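Re: How this chain folds, sequence and tokenised backbone to follow

Filed under: protein folding, tokenised backbone structure, sequence and structure records.

Contents: The amino acid chain and a row of whole-number tokens, matched residue for residue.

Body of memo: The sequence and its backbone structure tokens, given next.
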Amino acid sequence: MSTLKQRLDALPPEVLRGILRGIEKEGLRVRPDGTLATTPHPEALGAALTHANITTDFSESQLELITGAHDTAEALLQELTELHQYVYRCIGDELIWAASMPCRLPEHDEQIPLGQYGRSNIGRLKTVYRQGLSHRYGRRMQTISGIHYNFSLPAPAWPLLRELAGSPVPVERFQDAAYFALIRNFRRHSWLLLLLLGASPAVCGSFVRGHSHGLCAWDTGTFFAPYGTSLRMGRLGYQSDAQAALAVSFNCLADYARTLHRALTESYPPYEAIGLRDGDRYKQLATTLLQIENEFYGTIRPKRRILPGERPLRALGLRGVEYVEVRLVDINPFEPVGIGLAQMRLLDIFLLHCLLSDSPPDSPQEIAAMARNQRRIAERGREPRLRLHRTAELFRANGAPAAAAGATPTAELSADLALTDLTPADMTPAEWGGRLLRECEPIAAALDRAYEAVSGGHAYRDALAAAQRALREFDALPSARVLREIEREHGRSYPEFALARSAEHRRALLAQPLAAEALARYERQAEESHRAQREREAADDVSFETFRQRYLNQELMGGEHFAPLR
């Protein structure tokens, strides 16, 4: 805690006010009866390929709303609300599904439409990538939706933290290392966010049709995990047995890149069997384990804005980590836009804790333990007797002293046990989570001081206190509330619950006035995006196959940021 406090004290209020956060929010378009809308992406929303704020994800039916980066949670919520208001003015009687697990899906996978992005080479590449996903994982899994939370510290923060650390490396490389330290700690402790924010303990029977799942059933065709928090992040969600063998290391940018590079360049026999194309029809972009970087499923990613046609891994190598993307947040069905201010503030607190706390290197054993903890919380997080496993690395990251450099794993563990009466044994989520949230209290206080003029001086502490109460009273968690309302108010039917929430949010958002300036801005952006797509299509001067090969053959491991630190 002393180290965390020293790092926190090194960041004055004006620097904390420079933290940026943004959101990418997915959501299925559904008909008034709660079935998937299979209509094309509405013309009035603009071109999905070129619109900066309104696009689609896997499916033509799956909206993705993208905000800019904001220096307050209030401004972020305002933009996300405006985007929903505009969308609702363009989609007729359709609704945006108010939950992460999908609506009533068609009987056959092929009836779920893939995202379409026009005739340009880059547009075709996006659709072929989705075709590959459908062959590899099935289209039902891809209709799961969520919220991605993007987070970054301002440029002035890094020299301050580098000076405190006494680091000799350039500021840009120090920033890379610090973001990867954040990522390691996030992966160690992200189970806590699944517990606190998870809101997907139930699914429609159309989603699990033909698959074994081990869930309990109501006679309405709804399946559920009695103590589950986020089925989206469990075995039914974005999981891949093929990717599980990757054991991606986040000890540094170079280690991360090397692991992904192999997955992006070495052919994978099961995907070779699918084949690349059938005549002129492409089945996937490549036969490698990952077609492109975005296929890697993780709870958090290091990110860098990319140039047109540039691959994400290449951008990281050339220009370093710019921000992190948190990918495990469920859509909250009790919030009109899927997330509220308290959740955003909790994420800010949690991410700062991950950044400012000591972060020992990860190991294959720890990576395996983290995966087990994530699954336990996702599927059984509110179970009274549930315990989570802490490896030696997890234990040290929770405040136990680190062993001397060069010590063997056995010696490290012995040093931990000798210096504290805590042990790296299993703990309940409430015990472990309670310790983590107590460590977050000075962070919440510092953020309140920084944002006092905006939020009144206690909003961050209130958000943290609500999380602490929920750890003591699991019935207050969103996942518990979802199951309670499904059973008591919606005839034990998950689709009826989510449909009712979706309709309620539609009414609320349409009842709020949308400023004329905002409406005009979105209409102008839609027109400009259609024009930009036409220009892009007209500018293509090579065949799609040539474009595909050039895109995939970019040098991925070049750049100073992948070089060893000296």
